[in-house]
UniProtKB/TrEMBL annotation, chains A, B:
Keyword Methyltransferase attached: no
Record's subunit section: Homodimer.
Family: Belongs to the DTD family.
The protein's name in its UniProt record: D-aminoacyl-tRNA deacylase 2
Chain ranges passing through the membrane: none
Record-linked PANTHER family: D-AMINOACYL-TRNA DEACYLASE 2, D-TYROSYL-TRNA TYR DEACYLASE
Length: 167, 167
């Protein structure tokens, strides 16, 4: 048996009835800013050191097409076919590994490169939804968190139906 | 390099400000029943085929003692030291692996054995919190979902701060 290749990215998927994510914390008397989605998919994404630009389209293709969203008939379809909203949350903590009683993040990508891949990931998700006629007709949205922020999240599910996919 | 041993269990941790989980769906005119926690830890747990009873105390020990909960001073401490509530959610979908555009669950433990380990896991978490004087003084709670149910969840976070730990 060959040794498993270390993952280059890790995505966590949860199903949303509605979700609200802070994209700017409150400061200097200004209220916090939030984005919101309704029914659809919450994607938590974390890149590891070996991730590169070529990987991004593969991840987007998988996550938008994997059949994990329940439609009115109880069938599982892709978020594109639902069609549903998408909320993207950068989540570096997903790359952690326990050592003793602490988590270490040695395998995580460095911050600048991570931001670059995250931005590409968001842009490509937006593009894919915009290119999908079902999504456009239904007026579904892609929303996303601010890389590097604390991801203050309120999530309402009909079953989080949590899946992990590594790349 | 040796081939990685397949995981026997997978736990996903998210931090809660408050969380509400349905433990009985509405039926025959009776309203749904929910459990609720306040600040603390949400544990999604999934057992794979090779999991056994010896593994349960190891998982409980790790999850209750790993320092992932933020206290008032911004330090990360264990949920026992916070002290915080614990919400346990059985989440078989976490064991899925993509094949084409569908997820497969071939590595998951069989249902009966999974229920047995899940029950032991819940009981041991309850015992550990009950044995901890800080937790007892603060009156924190362990709540848990019903194995096999749809886990209808509402989660309010100050940052889900999502971690994956495999055993």
């Amino acid at each position: 048996m060959a040794a498993a290749r270390p993952a280059r990215a890790r995505a966590l998927l949860q199903q949303s009835v509605s979700a609200r994510l802070q994209v700017r914390p409150p400061e200097r008397g200004a209220e916090a800013q939030w984005v919101e989605i309704q029914r659809g998919l919450v994607i938590y994404i974390c890149f590891f050191k070996d991730a590169d630009e070529d990987l991004v389209p593969k991840i987007v293709n998988m996550l938008l097409n994997v059949k994990l969203s329940e439609n009115e008939n109880g069938e599982f379809v892709s978020v594109l076919d639902l069609p549903g909203d998408v909320l993207i949350i950068p989540q570096a903590t997903l790359g952690g590994k326990p050592k003793g009683r602490k988590m270490q993040y040695h395998a995580n990508i460095e911050k600048e490169k991570g931001l670059e891949l995250y931005s590409q990931f968001v842009t490509l998700c937006e593009k894919e939804l915009a290119a999908n006629s079902k999504c456009m007709e239904a007026g579904v949205h892609v929303k996303h968190g601010t890389y590097g922020n604390r991801q203050v999240l309120k999530l309402d599910t009909n079953g989080p139906y949590t899946h992990l996919i590594e790349f």
